[in-house]
């Protein structure tokens, strides 16, 4: 399989790399809107089809930004939206609401902000403990029947929860963190369940939020300022890993970011990496991955540089880890 092989999702063949738009509005410090829109346009022109957002990214700002960028171009984009998170006026998170009436309300606002009459993939961002995932799946199934949503997706759920949702309505994709520095799904039954059920994965965190080939936390509102992987001894250990990856990547004519993206693509044609590029330049670097000629020797070198399980620190602060069904649920 070539890493440039299209990925099949939602009944369509997709460009093998998708654009994650979150950082254009939230969690990584200030972003320039004109540059963000130029990046989305550059992605479209390059053939990118999959665009990922959330209704809580920037408390609606990201959807409005994406809507403006896709004006007159909506038919060229497959838009995936996460929902359910509640925000306060100061930008904090106050929980999740997955009641059927709330889901319908979230979707109504999303359609307005995006300036569209449907969402291509709609998924709850998290499934808190005690929430009946069958009811969530049933509500989205109704929205699909009504034409407002095209496909049902899940995000950060364990294998057992994924199976329960899929039994109510087919899950078109699972969004979850996966990359050289985060390989949990290879060991906890999630990847196996996806293969068994025929569910593709949209992988975020492929560059481990900039640990690989990116900038370190520079802004008070940057997620990385509070991420365990960017703190103290953890950061020192993780930087040593990424330095080793940079050396391995150079041997094969790649940047560290390209090495990480290529590795994710190499894990199978059911993996669609999402890259959070915020500038046309970073996007071009990511897309340049597809022109590389890499074989087993290269991927073995990348894995040797960043051994499975070697990363230090959890992928979210402890309070946020508690919301991850994918971390608390047993393998099934």
TrEMBL record:
Coiled coil: none annotated. Residues 16-305 form the NADP-dependent oxidoreductase domain. It holds the Pfam family Aldo_ket_red. It comes from the Bacteria. InterPro entries: AKR, Aldo-Keto_reductase, NAD(P)_OxRdtase_dom_sf, NADP_OxRdtase_dom. Signal peptide: none annotated. Gene3D superfamilies: NADP-dependent oxidoreductase domain. Keywords: Oxidoreductase. PANTHER family: AFLATOXIN B1 ALDEHYDE REDUCTASE, ALDO-KETO REDUCTASE YAKC [NADP(+)]. This is Aldo/keto reductase. It comes from Roseomonas alba.
